[in-house]
Design brief:
- This protein is an alpha/beta fold.
- The protein has a single domain, classed as Spore Coat Polysaccharide Biosynthesis Protein SpsA, Chain A, CATH 3.90.550.
- Helix content is 30%, strand content 28%.
- The chain is built from nine helices and 13 strands.
- The strands form three sheets. Strands 1, 4, 5, 6, 8, 9, 10, 11 and 12 form a nine-stranded mixed beta sheet that branches. A two-stranded antiparallel ribbon has the order 2-3. A two-stranded antiparallel ribbon has the order 7-13.
- The longest helix has 12 residues.
- The radius of gyration is 17 Å and the shape is globular.
- It comes from Oceanobacillus profundus.
- Keywords: Nucleotidyltransferase, Transferase.
Length: 236
């Protein structure tokens, strides 16, 4: 399985709040932010290598590379020289490092989720999977599901149900993801709209690919300073 953690975002809301370090290195209970994403999928880390996609200037000017290797000694680190047009384009930049006949797991670097038996869930599924939690916040993407938790549709930053995505996405076949993602990538060049993973899934759903939703026990997002503060109060 290819496990990918994109860490190449701008972190705009943290910069506006006065933070000077890269968002992924912000301290959350004594750990860099991206540690918590890995904690949520730790059951997979003893078997699969993780590919981190980072900005070159973060790797060269901070301890990001060291901290990644401290947590994942066999990690693959892909360096980008500039910002991309969103998470999908970021993942495409690491295509050369993927085993294309294996599944693909993509997870945000700013989210901590708790989901029991995650390895069993992935091993037993022949469908794509989107991990979800209950929310009403329109800053997330949302899925609409049938009575069997099969996903009918997915929309970015539009509340179409009570199930928001955690940012953990599973694709049974890496090659299929890459093919569909690349077919639409040119549409986002030169415009401000980001190319989200949810947009690839929406396209795949329209083509008949099946995805199921998996509700996690807990989900904490670190999209802004106040969310970190709330997490610290709950977790301590």
């Amino acid at each position: 399985m290819n496990i990918v953690i994109p860490l190449a975002g701008k972190g705009t809301r943290f910069k506006q709040a006065g933070y000077t370090e890269p968002k992924v290195l912000i301290d959350v209970l004594g750990k860099p932010m991206f540690y918590w994403a890995l904690e949520g999928i730790k059951d997979l880390l003893d078997e699969y290598r993780v590919t981190f996609i980072c900005l070159d200037h973060h790797l060269n000017s901070t301890e990001l590379k060291k901290k990644i290797y401290d947590i994942c000694p066999d990690a693959i680190i892909v360096s980008l020289h500039e910002y991309t047009h969103g998470q999908t384009e970021t993942v495409l930049k690491a295509e050369a490092f993927f085993k294309k006949d294996e599944p693909l797991l993509i997870f945000n670097g700013d989210t901590y989720q708790q989901c029991s038996n995650i390895r069993t869930k992935l091993d037993n599924s022949i469908k794509g999977m989107v991990f979800v939690f209950e929310s009403k916040d329109d800053s997330f993407s949302y899925v609409d599901v049938d009575n069997n938790n099969n996903i009918l549709t997915i929309k970015e930053k539009k509340v179409i149900s009570k199930y928001a995505t955690t940012g953990l996405y599973y694709f049974p076949n890496t090659e299929q993801f890459l093919t569909i993602a690349k077919e639409n990538s040119d549409l986002f060049k030169g415009i401000k709209q980001e190319y989200y993973i949810s947009m690839v899934i929406e396209k795949m759903l329209n083509l008949g690919t099946q995805f199921e939703s998996v509700k996690v026990e807990k989900c904490y997002t670190f999209g802004n300073p106040s969310e970190i503060e709330k997490f610290i109060k709950k977790y301590e």
